[in-house]
Amino acid sequence: MNHKHAFVDTNILVYVHDSDAVKKHQAAQELIKSLWDSPYPPAISTQVLQELYVSLAKKGAKSDDCKKIINIYYSWEVVEHDIPLIEAGVSYKERYKLSLWDGLIVAAAVKAKAELLYTEDLQNGQRIDQLLVVNPFV
């Protein structure tokens, strides 16, 4: 894997914990393992943690299990949402015709000074400012 500072979107983490989606589960696990071993700490945002909790709960995970899983990622760089990040997210939404949620993910990745944004929600290979969008399932 490429050892650059990376931001991980919620969908990647959901697949790490969803063994029903066999191919995506394996690919996500390999990616996350490589990021744990990377010299650069991976980054996520408070939005990613919230969405991960909700996604796991919708799939039937118990509240205590959801908490344990999101706690795993507290050791990563966690970008907190604030007013400037929301404004940047809206700007990315408008400039790149994204959903607000994807605009906020991009804004958080940029704030984390990430070079790679791992997601399946944006176009693989797309460049947004310093970010390269990478879909690990392609």
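The record above closes out task 2.4. Task 2.5 opens with a second protein, given below.
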Amino acid sequence: MFRFEKLKVWHDSRSLVREIYALTRKFPAEEKFCLTNQIRRAAISISLNIAEGSDRKSDKEFKRFLRMAISSAEEVITGLYIALDLNYLNKKKFDKIYEDSNILVAKLNALIKSLRD
């Protein structure tokens, strides 16, 4: 088993990806190669950065990747704000994913703080 597979935050990030894919399937077809793609790639990047960083040789490097995962989560939220502004999703759905992302970022920050420098 890989180290990242033992991390709850990695499993949570995969759940977020599933939420994002389900949501963006309903975006207009014209957004397929723009906003849809950007939000999906940012969501996937969260999981990928956790996984890639977990196998680094030092906790310092792992922290760097966890911070990139946080940046990707912030990118997801920004994309969702744009989607909300364009009426591609409703406020209730936005609020749900916003809250899930906020919890995920808090867990990433807690993991960062638990690692050695």
